[in-house]
Structures are given as C-alpha cells and as structure tokens.
Amino acid sequence: MKNIKWLLLFILALTWGSSFILIKKALIGLSPVEIGALRIIFAGVILFFIGFKKLKSIEKKFWKPLAIVAIFGTFFPVFLFSFAITEIDSGIAAVLNSLTPLITMVLGVLFFNFSFSKKQVLGVFIGLFGTLILLYHSAIQNPSKNYFYAALIFIAATGYAFSVNYIKTQFKKLDSVSITSATFTFLIPPAFLVLLFSGFFEKNISEETTYTSLGYVFILAALGTSMAMLLFNKLIQMSSPVFSASVSYLITVVAVIWGVIDGEKVTFIQLIAAVLIIWGVVIAQKKKKNKD
C-alpha cells in the first residue's frame, strides 16, 4: 500500500507538472481561448461518462453551488492559464501556481472562519517575498516578456483556492467523483459556445500545427484533468491530506524541468525564489498545535 501511494504521487506530479508545457506547445497552433474551451469540452465529455451514474443521484439543492464552483474554480482559471503562458515561461507559471495552497489558507481565514497561527503568518510573508523576487528577476532576465500577465496566474490560483474552501463547506455529503463530474459536465455548453465564436471551426484542422496542438490539448484534458483528478481522489482515500498536498511541490519541480528541456532559462536567483515560495507554502500549511 505504501508503494502504491508513492507511485500515485509520482504519476500525479508528472501529469500535472507536464500540463504547463502542454499548454505552451498547444499555443503554437491554437489561441488561448480555443485551448481553454477545448480542454473543458474534452475533459467534460470524459468525466460525464465516468460519473454518469453519480450525476443522476445529485440532489437539486447542490446544483447551484456546483455551478459556482464550476465557474470560479474551473472555467475562468483554465482560460487565464492559457493567456498567461503566452507571455510567461511555463516553469515560472508553475512556480506561481504553487501559491495556491497559501491563497487557499488566506481566503479560509478571511471568508470561511479559519484562523492563523504565527508560523502561518510567517509562511505567507516568506511566500510573497519569494514571489516578488521571482517576478522582479524574471522581468530583468526577459525584458521582452510582459510579466503583468503573472496577475492572471494569481487570479486563477485565487479561483482554485476559493473553490477548495467552498467545496469543504458546501459539499460534505458529495463524493469527489460526483463534484468533479458535475462541474465539468455543467461547463460543456458554455465552453462550446465560447469555441463557436472563437473562430476554431474556420480553421483547417488538417494543417500540422493545428492537429498537433489539438493532440496536446486532448492529452492535457484526458490525463492532466480527468485521469489526474481520479488518481488524486484515490490518493486522498489511501493517505493523509498532508501527504496528498505534497504533490503541489513536486508539480513545480517537474514543470521547471520541462521548461529547461524546452529551452527556458532558469537562473540561480530564480531557483532561490522558488525555494522561498515552496518553503513559505509548507510553513503556511502547518496546523496549530492543540493545547492540552
């Protein structure tokens, strides 16, 4: 069982960590809007068939909260990441995405009645300090890139963070497969509508750049979204939340390695900044010790 847990963790890190480079490659033949819409549609269809029986058993009262999670936790972030990677290296985007657990904690305190410990406050400041160093140094190293697009990563991460907190408070009676299948199924119609007005159907799909990019998006949706979510749910059932959450840090490592392989430059200062961000997130996630 222990070996299986580590195997799942490795597969998840490799799968989610590869998502950033897949988006970058898909952008060669598709626009950010087309990538976002297609990713949702592909993943939605796959998850619909996987969770079809679960969908029929969801009570009506849950569908409005599920729609909120779908829009803020999936729909907008998918498009924001695609736009961000048009200007930011995939490795840098992955490092910034590792702030999601930290943002989750901050939103939990502000809106969901969670509380801070002194160590968690320290973790927040360490993470933010590392982020500022990363963005400043990256902007100096690559002046041609527009690092204002980093704000899109923060907005997307905030959407993920809100979704996590909202799910914890609203869906105690729903299992993860039901939530995931329902949210993506809900998004198929609006994603198709976006794709309809994106100009995608006017493209010549037989062109090499187009069908190659479509292949990257399908892999991203099938493995990086559908399969990964199912494996993550399994990992949570088999292990502790702390062990499961550690995949966030491994994702960053995998994404940076892919970026280097693809020719992205990573400096020593950027690595130090990434370590600071991950260290801050680790500290911020530590729970208070109960006083006996």
Explain this structure.
There is one protein chain. The chain is built from 14 helices and no strands. With 292 residues, the chain is mainly alpha-helical. The protein has one domain. It is globular, with a radius of gyration of 19 Å. The chain starts with a helix and ends in a 7-residue tail after the last helix. The mean pLDDT is 81.
Topology, element by element:
Layout: H1 2-17, H2 19-26, H3 32-50, H4 52-56, H5 63-84, H6 90-97, H7 100-111, H8 118-141, H9 150-170, H10 176-196, H11 208-238, H12 241-245, H13 247-261, H14 268-285
Task: Briefly summarize what is shown.
By secondary structure, the chain is mainly alpha-helical. Helices cover 77% and strands 0% of the residues.
Task: List low-confidence stretches.
Answer: none
The tally of strands reads 0
Order of SSEs: HHHHHHHHHHHHHH
> Which bin fits the share of residues in helices?
over 70%
Mean pLDDT rating? 81
Radius of gyration: 19 Å
Percentage of residues in DSSP E strands: under 5%
Terminal CA distance reads 33 Å
- Main sheet properties: none
Number of helices: 14
Structural class: mainly alpha
Key terms:
292 residues; globular
